């Protein structure tokens, strides 16, 4: 492994991280937007947001990415690779995230909602001052899982020839032919990023829980398997599989 | 269209075989993680954690380019099935864990009281009760895997996306094939998930 090769990897890693941050931001916006829309009073809003969720969860993120990158230009829009990747990841992981938001909102004790109504809070105040502060700590562990899924999803962008980590590895492999080393190294790099993200999210979770005076689970090992780690957390939430 | 349907068949095959591999391996991980010896639990948990936290696509590339170098040459589909199965086994192991944890502790104690050997306890007492709970959750992973099969196009498996790409390459029409593929995914996965929800209501209560 030469220095130039490592430089190639770190350039790729940087693009991977950018892609992850952008699409996580978009996914968070979509998740809260659609998640709130699904608890709306108006059936048409609930219905349309439901259609959105089922559609984007039903199709494959990679196919969506290909569609945005190759098919959209024929409708007159050409997206730069990284934006096609961001859009595809943000829209589809946002759909998963919206289920987390909805599940967490519905998990807030009904009495809290009623109390807020009794205090004649407006719906907006109710959401901002009562529901969200209690729902957000609940959302943290599934969001953590989703973020890792998103990080792994960024590898798909390599198939659009965006120069992120997986794509750089492909270039490195073509020039050196050392498949095992190169793919081994980038697997470790992905793992390292995921590991750091998980730790950061756990700190955030701890803070969020502490801020609403909730007990903070302690004593989890570095490789703890105790946190709820359903890939489709939303399904479990929606069907009452909540811990 | 017939070409895409051909791809659909490959996609379905990959999903079915991949699921079977992941169901079997997942159970192995789940039981290994409950072993009393740290020498078993530690390596397995590190391995599971590593696979879970790295991209499936890179794992597929790893297998596809490295296995032949080790003297193991498989058809692309086989490599894909190994990759999918291995990746998803780390998720299904979590499902089994939850299912096994859900069996009331009294059942373990009863088995001990009856002086059942460890293997009989697993086979006759614990697993039959755990399976009922895990079926719907396993189904969710089958759907997730189905939606991940387009990644196999990256290792030259002639699945739907691969077929759509090759049609596009000859006709220069990207819009239609890829749209058809995207819609086929929704058309198959959505009713399946509805079915699973119905099944879940029936099995888990």
Automatic annotation (TrEMBL), chain A:
<dbReference type="InterPro" id="IPR010065">
    <property type="entry name" value="AA_ABC_transptr_permease_3TM"/>
</dbReference>
<keyword id="KW-0812">Transmembrane</keyword>
<dbReference type="Pfam" id="PF00528">
    <property type="entry name" value="BPD_transp_1"/>
</dbReference>
<feature type="transmembrane region" description="Helical">
    <location>
        <begin position="182"/>
        <end position="201"/>
    </location>
</feature>
<feature type="transmembrane region" description="Helical">
    <location>
        <begin position="75"/>
        <end position="96"/>
    </location>
</feature>
<dbReference type="InterPro" id="IPR014342">
    <property type="entry name" value="Ectoine_EhuC"/>
</dbReference>
<protein>
    <submittedName>
        <fullName>Ectoine/hydroxyectoine ABC transporter permease subunit EhuC</fullName>
    </submittedName>
</protein>
<dbReference type="InterPro" id="IPR000515">
    <property type="entry name" value="MetI-like"/>
</dbReference>
<keyword id="KW-0813">Transport</keyword>
<feature type="transmembrane region" description="Helical">
    <location>
        <begin position="43"/>
        <end position="69"/>
    </location>
</feature>
<feature type="transmembrane region" description="Helical">
    <location>
        <begin position="143"/>
        <end position="162"/>
    </location>
</feature>
<dbReference type="InterPro" id="IPR035906">
    <property type="entry name" value="MetI-like_sf"/>
</dbReference>
<keyword id="KW-0472">Membrane</keyword>
<comment type="similarity">
    <text>Belongs to the binding-protein-dependent transport system permease family.</text>
</comment>
<dbReference type="GO" id="GO:0006865">
    <property type="term" value="P:amino acid transport"/>
</dbReference>
<keyword id="KW-0029">Amino-acid transport</keyword>
<dbReference type="InterPro" id="IPR043429">
    <property type="entry name" value="ArtM/GltK/GlnP/TcyL/YhdX-like"/>
</dbReference>
<dbReference type="GO" id="GO:0043190">
    <property type="term" value="C:ATP-binding cassette (ABC) transporter complex"/>
</dbReference>
<keyword id="KW-1133">Transmembrane helix</keyword>
<feature type="domain" description="ABC transmembrane type-1">
    <location>
        <begin position="13"/>
        <end position="201"/>
    </location>
</feature>
<keyword id="KW-1003">Cell membrane</keyword>
<dbReference type="GO" id="GO:0022857">
    <property type="term" value="F:transmembrane transporter activity"/>
</dbReference>
<feature type="transmembrane region" description="Helical">
    <location>
        <begin position="12"/>
        <end position="36"/>
    </location>
</feature>
